[in-house]
Amino acid sequence: MGYEADLKLFINGSWRTGEGRDSFAVVNPVTGSEIAELPLATEADLDEALETAKRTYPEWRATEVDKRSAILHKTAKLLKERADEIARTMTQEQGKPIAESKGEVFGAASLFDWYAEEIKRDYGRVLVRPPGQLSRVMHEPVGPVATFTPWNFPIYLLAKKVAAALAAGCSVISKPPEETPGNTLAIARALDDAGLPKGVFQLVHGVPDVVSRHLIGSKVIRKVSFTGSIPVGKHLMKLAADNVTKITLELGGHAPVLIFDDCDLQKTLDMVVPQKFRNAGQVCVSPTRFYVQEGIYDAFITGFTERTRKVKVGDGLLEDTRMGPLANTRRPEAVEALVNDARDKGAKVMTGGSRGDSGGFFFQPTLLADVPLEADIMNNEPFGPVAVSRSFKDMDEAIEQANRLPYGLAAFAFTENGRRANLLGDAIEAGMVGINTFAISIADAPFGGVKESGFGSEGGKEGLETYQVVKAIHQA
Ligand code: NAD
Fold it and tell me: How much is the ipTM here?
């Protein structure tokens, strides 16, 4: 099946093609071969986008909430209608199985629907004052926004930022990931077709460092939202400091999974194995460090290994594929280095452990057992299809292990003991804790990290607040 996306920039309400611009080769990770050329924004394009965002912001901010809401609902409807086509493009660019791509498009649509409703209920408040006096607290849109999103969930992560920012009344310039651009264009098309005024949303592909310096360096941009790695997040935070620009950072994670001997082990294994290999482990909340209570550790390793060997790896366009290739050539290289380091330091490779022989950017689904704490993979996010495991004695040790890293995005625990579940929820240092569940990324719930995993929530009413400023008006 051929690649069908028509790759363009979307600036000032019009689609821009190559026309002498530099370009970036988009590659299919199944084969490693080029499938399309993506035009990259010039400095003049970025200046035009900034001017446009500045000009369109007051008009969009003043647009009635009902009208904003209707446009966002229509966008959601169009995304759902176009889900098959968008999903095909995503799988060709990113590698994930087609069912995961399609689910992601529906997830993106759910964010537009949710924020379309939430903005209607965004109330300020009136404070208690003597008769004749009035003090009110207002929520106002922050101003033009710049978003930077990665290649692992290209449409969902873009929708998370754009739906909330547009609902709040902000104009938006987005830089999606160059590696997976085609499906992100679908957001621009849907918003345009849904009647969003021209220039309120713009899409600028480009060299990441050039685009972020240019946009964040401009006084037009009043809010930055980034999802990606911790080093890049720290760099963008420094850029944002120059203009004291608000910033939300959703950075990496290294999610611990605490498995207690009172859990239903077979049911737990049936949940954790597919979750580990979803999107080939390239998920910021992917379950990664498995700490298993000593009495059930051997049974866990046996059950995990058996299930992992059955995960069908291949081209994501094939219906029976359960795990595709990694998204780009950097990932298998990084994962291989981490696995080799762990093996050299004494970890046991229970299954997988190498790239396999199918070419492209594949890495086999892998389980490492008895991994020493000093192995790099116990300390740095693998962002690939590798689970690492160790045993623990009691709850205190499990909590200490869960909290030992500078990451604090997601954490999971499996136990049938209700009191233990309560205590774990309190004791774990993470932005999201899933107990007997992995369902933590939902439109109505805040999603974000603590410690070096970042700050500022996306999703939920907190996600709307990150695109607002608060004003108190006092009248005597
Ligand atoms: P990277 O740090 O080079 O890039 C991550 C993302 O940031 C990409 O989309 C890239 O386009 C963007 N980026 C890079 N430099 C930028 C800049 N100066 N300005 C603006 N955007 C910039 O890493 P990578 O090789 O793509 O991925 C490796 C690591 O990134 C992973 O191991 C993982 O830790 C992290 N990551 C996290 C998430 C997440 O969901 N939190 C997503 C993707 C990658």
Answer: 0.95
